[in-house]
Amino acid sequence: MEHHKTYNAMELKVRSGSLIIEGPITAHQLKNLEFHEDLVAFRPAVQQHEALVGIADLPEGRIIVAREHNLVVGYVTYLFPDPLERWSQGNMKNLIELGAIEVIPKFRGSGVGKGLLKVSMMDDAMEDYIIITTEYYWHWDLKGTGLDVWEYRKVMEKMMNSGGLEWYATDDPEISSHPANCLMVKIGKRVDTDSIQQFDGLRFMNRWMY
């Protein structure tokens, strides 16, 4: 399948003024933006900036950013699942993963995460995909937010719901290893039945082992 990307943008009012949420943006556009030093959830900010530039120009790669002037303060990534994960088995061209979403502490609770998801889904091409995200509690900033595991899970689930992603059951061992971990999914309107059945096979790979 061809991977079409249509740019969209919105303005989000925040206490300090307003942010622009836009994307998918190109690697060239991303290189010309500064990356906030507090974007360190997955790796140091400089390295994360480089990683996003690498994703932006992949055929299926999508980067949506929230920026204050020229400074990136939040982002969300979409790309094919990691080759080491079960979700890449079957080599589905219409299955992409929301791989990371991050917002600097200053703007958390301002609707930036929801805005990133909203702009992501403005692109009609997203209706051609099964979009997944795997949420693991050990990635969550429990210390920085002061939330416990279940409070954070509730916030995360609500944010993902705003992008149309819903909780789906799975027997994936890593997700099943803690009850707060979860798989969330959005199945686009144009996804065919065979793809949905293939995806269901990925969700439950151990069903015949019992």
TrEMBL record:
<dbReference type="Pfam" id="PF00583">
    <property type="entry name" value="Acetyltransf_1"/>
</dbReference>
<dbReference type="GO" id="GO:0045150">
    <property type="term" value="P:acetoin catabolic process"/>
</dbReference>
<dbReference type="InterPro" id="IPR024699">
    <property type="entry name" value="AcuA"/>
</dbReference>
<dbReference type="GO" id="GO:0019152">
    <property type="term" value="F:acetoin dehydrogenase (NAD+) activity"/>
</dbReference>
<protein>
    <submittedName>
        <fullName>GNAT family N-acetyltransferase</fullName>
    </submittedName>
</protein>
<dbReference type="GO" id="GO:0016747">
    <property type="term" value="F:acyltransferase activity, transferring groups other than amino-acyl groups"/>
</dbReference>
<dbReference type="InterPro" id="IPR000182">
    <property type="entry name" value="GNAT_dom"/>
</dbReference>
<feature type="domain" description="N-acetyltransferase">
    <location>
        <begin position="37"/>
        <end position="119"/>
    </location>
</feature>
<dbReference type="InterPro" id="IPR016181">
    <property type="entry name" value="Acyl_CoA_acyltransferase"/>
</dbReference>
